[in-house]
Amino acid sequence: MSYDLDFHDVSLDLRAYTRAVHRRVCADGRAVAWAAFEGSFHYDELLSERVAHQVYGYCVTGAEPVVEWDIAVLRSDEWRLGIAEVRAALDDLLSDSA
Q: 75: which residues sit within 8 A by CB, 6+ positions away?
């Protein structure tokens, strides 16, 4: 499933909202979810190293959601490695459902 959300109220705490949504999505059953900036979505590059810096939140079942807004962190090698782990979890999930 894919959702495209627009917020017009800039007073909202979008970090808390993103974390809460991810926690709920990944709470029951096996799931992988992520939030990314507009323009980062293409099936061939889901959670790839090329778009890792555009992903600002993710969760995998059994782990706490991760949400980050600091551009330096989003461009770091550590962040890219975390996104690669999320991609591996997504690949596992998809291969089990085939």
A: 53
Q: How many other C-beta atoms can be found within 10 angstroms of the C-beta atom of residue 87?
A: 20
Which alpha helices (H) appear in 1-98, and where do they start and end? 14-25, 71-74, 77-97
- Give exposure, 13-51, as e/b (b: 16+ Cβ within 10 Å): ebeeebbebbeebbeeeebbbbbbeeebeeeeebbeeeb
Q: What is the pLDDT of residues 1-23, one digit of tens each?
A: 777 777 788 788 889 999 999 99
* 56 within 8 A of 67, measured Cβ to Cβ: yes
How would you list the strands of the sheet with 55-60, edge to edge?
A: 32-36, 55-60, 66-67
Q: Which tokens go with 55?
A: 């992903």
pTM of the model: 0.86
Beta-sheet pairing, 66-67 with 32-36? unpaired
